[in-house]
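Postdoc handover notes: sequence design on the structure in folder B. Input C-alpha cells:
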C-alpha cells in the first residue's frame, strides 16, 4: 500500500544549517499494516510523514501509494489517497465552521464540489450516528463551532474526519502528544478501533514507547534519517521499553537521549 524507495531529503543545502533529514530511506507497508514509528529528536520521523503527504518534495527517490507513483504530486492531490491527524489539535479542522460542516467537507474529500445545498437531513443523521461512537456528546452539538471544542474533542473529530472516506493510507503524527493522559488514552483506543474496523494501512509516529509496542502489528525505529530497527508480529508483542532502549544503543552505537520518550515509558 505504501512503497518508499531510497528517498533523501536535505534542508538548507549548502549552508551552515544544512541538515540531512532522510538518507536513502526505503520502507514498504502492506495492505492493513499498522506501523508505529519511534526515534530520538531529529531522527527524521516527521520528515518521513511529511514526505509521504507531499508537504515538501524529496530530493531523490520514489513514493508510491497503492501502486501509484505520487512522488511528483503536490500535497492537495495526494489528499485523495490519505487521511491525516496532526500533533496540534488546532490543525486538521476548520475552527470557525460547525462540526457538521467539517464532517461534510471530509465526506466530500476527493469528490467534485457543487453549489447545491450543503448538508441534507439524511447526512445529519449519519453524522450523529458517527459522532455518537466517540462518546463525547458531540452528536448533540452538530452546529457548534469546532474552535469551541477541547483538544481531545478536536483530535477525536479529526480522526473521524480523516477516516470518513476510507483512505488508502492513514498518517498519525504524534496525534496524542498534546493531550492529557486520560484523553490521550481515549483517542488511542478510538484509533485502534477505527483502524481495526476499516482494516486501514496506518503509519503512526509516537514519542511513547509503550504505545509504540502496544499499538499495531509492526514497529520501526529511526535514527539520523534511516530505519535502524524493524520488528513485527510475535517478536514485537514480546518487546519491553528496556528492549527498545537496548536495541537503539545496539543499532546506533550511542545512548538514547530523548527525555520526552524516556519519561513516557
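Designed sequence:
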Amino acid at each position: 500500500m505504501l512503497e518508499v524507495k531510497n528517498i533523501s531529503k536535505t534542508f538548507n543545502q549548502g549552508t551552515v544549517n544544512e541538515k540531512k533529514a532522510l538518507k536513502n530511506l526505503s520502507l514498504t507497508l502492506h495492505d492493513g499494516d499498522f506501523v508505529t514509528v519511534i526515534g530520538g529528536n531529529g531522527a527524521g520521523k516527521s520528515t518521513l510523514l511529511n514526505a509521504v503527504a507531499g508537504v515538501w518534495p524529496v530530493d531523490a527517490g520514489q513514493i508510491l501509494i497503492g501502486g501509484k507513483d505520487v512522488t511528483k504530486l503536490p500535497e492537495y492531490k495526494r489528499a485523495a489517497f490519505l487521511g491525516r491527524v496532526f500533533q496540534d489539535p488546532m490543525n486538521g479542522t476548520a475552527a470557525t465552521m460547525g462540526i457538521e460542516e467539517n464532517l461534510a467537507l471530509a465526506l466530500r474529500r476527493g469528490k467534485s464540489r457543487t453549489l447545491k445545498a450543503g448538508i441534507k437531513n439524511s447526512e445529519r443523521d449519519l453524522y450523529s450516528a458517527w459522532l455518537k461512537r466517540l462518546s463525547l456528546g458531540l452528536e448533540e452539538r452538530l452546529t457548534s463551532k469546532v474552535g469551541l471544542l477541547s483538544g481531545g474533542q478536536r483530535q477525536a473529530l479529526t480522526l473521524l474526519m480523516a477516516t470518513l472516506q476510507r483512505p488508502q493510507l492513514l498518517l498519525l503524527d504524534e496525534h496524542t502528544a498534546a493531550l492529557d493522559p486520560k484523553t490521550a488514552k481515549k483517542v488511542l483506543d478510538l484509533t485502534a478501533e477505527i483502524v481495526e474496523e476499516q482494516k486501514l494501512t496506518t503509519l503512526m509516529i509516537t514519542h511513547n514507547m509503550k504505545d509504540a509496542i502496544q499499538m499495531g502489528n509492526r514497529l520501526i525505529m529511526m535514527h539520523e534519517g534511516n530505519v535502524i530497527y524493524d520488528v513485527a508480529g510475535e517478536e514485537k508483542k514480546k518487546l519491553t521499553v528496556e528492549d527498545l532502549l537496548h536495541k537503539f544503543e545496539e543499532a546506533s552505537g550511542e545512548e538514547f537521549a530523548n527525555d520526552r520518550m524516556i519519561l513516557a515509558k
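Context for whoever picks this up: The chain has one domain: 2-172+179-206. Don't rerun without checking with the PI first.
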